[in-house]
Amino acid sequence: MPYEIKGLNEECGIFGAWGTTEASHLTYFGLHSLQHRGQEGAGIVVSDGQSLQQFRGRGLLAEVFSNESDLENLKGTAAIGHVRYGTSGNNILANVQPFLFHFHDGDVALAHNGNLTNAASLKRELEDQGAIFQSTSDTEILIHLIRQKKDLDFITALKQSLNQIHGGFAFVLLRKDSLIAALDPNGFRPLSVGQLDSGEYVIASETCAFDMIGAKFVRDVQPGELIMINKTGLHIDHYTQKTKLSICSMEYIYFARPDSIIHGVTVHNARKKMGRLLAQQAPVDADMVIGVPNSSLSAASGFAEESGLPYEMGLIKSQYIARTFIQPTQELRERGVKMKLSAVRGVVEGKRVVIVDDSIVRGTTSKQLVHLLKEAGAKEVHMRIASPPLRFPCFYGIDISTRSELMAANYTVAQMRQIIDADSLSFLSIENLIAAIALKDAQKAPNGGLCVAYFDGKYPTPLYDYEAGYLKSLKRQQTREVIG
Ligand code: AMP
């Protein structure tokens, strides 16, 4: 099976609220601040204590809930919600979450952020046993696994099912009597619990959702945990004790919002430190530092502070364009960069510019940025990347593409510099990345509690369905390198 199994990836934002008549509105606002985690679809399921009701659609949250009545009609005291970031080919309504199932013994809804590494084989097994899937998403697998265990109570069935799936997953589930959250044994994806002043609990992919609704942070969901919120309060349980934190470093580098706090680390501060360490590691004799709005501004400010160079606004971002990476084809992606960013001639003309970006994936953005800046008169353009070269794909829920598309998997740094036409190019080292994030409670864990597999190819778990295809593709690549 090729490892490039597209259409099973989910990279999303999830939210849940319990015990408040404002449930669907709180979920809407929570999702609004998680919109950066997915713009392809959004949905909310609400519970009135008896049955569950759903509203979902394709597009941005505000496009999906475009009439006031869409939210008003979702009356209830508990809700879960989802914003979806899928990959090309599966942007269909059937894949928009939360998924809602009406069983004879009650309704269940679920929403998922992550990617399962044994989804394809589980799906095949389940279909052989008669299961009928509604979507092409891996999320649905969990519900089929739970329903297979008819003789067990829901929580026991859920715990056993969570032990059957592998990969990166953060789930929220809603039933008429409880809101449930679960995180994979490596805690690849962030998930936190918050509390409103009035005492009710909420769950969110990122803490920025709590700030939006006036909730205070209670705790991060830990790897292997199963958290249940019901009328008697918050209950913390485990479905496995075999856990090892390796949270995705790309959350800190690019994906999460700078104001979120993940495992005690403010994302902005981590990015700023990445910029500082990068300036120490690869200093430049230049006139100014500029960042690529918005995801690189924190790192650029750190680079400027450390190097003593002025921090300037040399690039302007249109506020009315979604992330370029989301565009499915390379042609659209290239046009997307131009629509999104413009250089400020009056700032960069005749100047030696250091431009800091958070990462290079396919190289589309960097190439165009250098071109934009030179066209606007920059004398020299030095590219500094606040993460190590992305050489390996992610199997746990970040769309880091296939190896064939990753620029750093196919070219040396010197070749990349040439291709993007920069005067110099440097990346942050893996050691400095780990030092910049510095998770306090995980200092002694491998890689300081982070997953850095995109940079070193050392995956913290077996790759299951992806293993054979991935190894084959690596071999193909090595053969090409030897021949070439
Ligand atoms: P590229 O143009 O393909 O090299 O993409 C690089 C840009 O995409 C970077 O400037 C990042 O801000 C952004 N980026 C990095 N990783 C991801 C990701 N997994 N999903 C979407 N965008 C990303």
Automatic annotation (TrEMBL):
Entry superkingdom: Bacteria
SUPFAM superfamilies per the UniProt record, alphabetical: N-terminal nucleophile aminohydrolases (Ntn hydrolases), PRTase-like
InterPro entries in alphabetical order: GATase_2_dom, Ntn_hydrolases_N, PRTase-like, PRTase_dom, PurF, PurF_N
Enzyme class: transferase
Molecular function per GO: amidophosphoribosyltransferase activity; magnesium ion binding
Catalytic activity: 5-phospho-beta-D-ribosylamine + L-glutamate + diphosphate = 5-phospho-alpha-D-ribose 1-diphosphate + L-glutamine + H2O
One BP term from GO: purine nucleobase biosynthetic process
Sorted UniProt keywords: Glutamine amidotransferase, Glycosyltransferase, Magnesium, Metal-binding, Purine biosynthesis, Transferase
EC number: 2.4.2.14
Sequence ranges assigned to domain Glutamine amidotransferase type-2 in this UniProt record: 12-232
Cofactor info, note text: Binds 1 Mg(2+) ion per subunit.
PROSITE patterns: GATASE_TYPE_2 (PS51278)
Pfam families xrefs: GATase_7, Pribosyltran
UniProt pathway annotation: Purine metabolism; IMP biosynthesis via de novo pathway; N(1)-(5-phospho-D-ribosyl)glycinamide from 5-phospho-alpha-D-ribose 1-diphosphate: step 1/2
Keyword flag Protein transport: no
Residues noted as binding Mg(2+) in the record, renumbered to the chain: S295, D357, D358
Active site: C12
PANTHER family per the UniProt record, alphabetical: AMIDOPHOSPHORIBOSYLTRANSFERASE
Function: Catalyzes the formation of phosphoribosylamine from phosphoribosylpyrophosphate (PRPP) and glutamine.
Protein's name according to its UniProt entry: Amidophosphoribosyltransferase
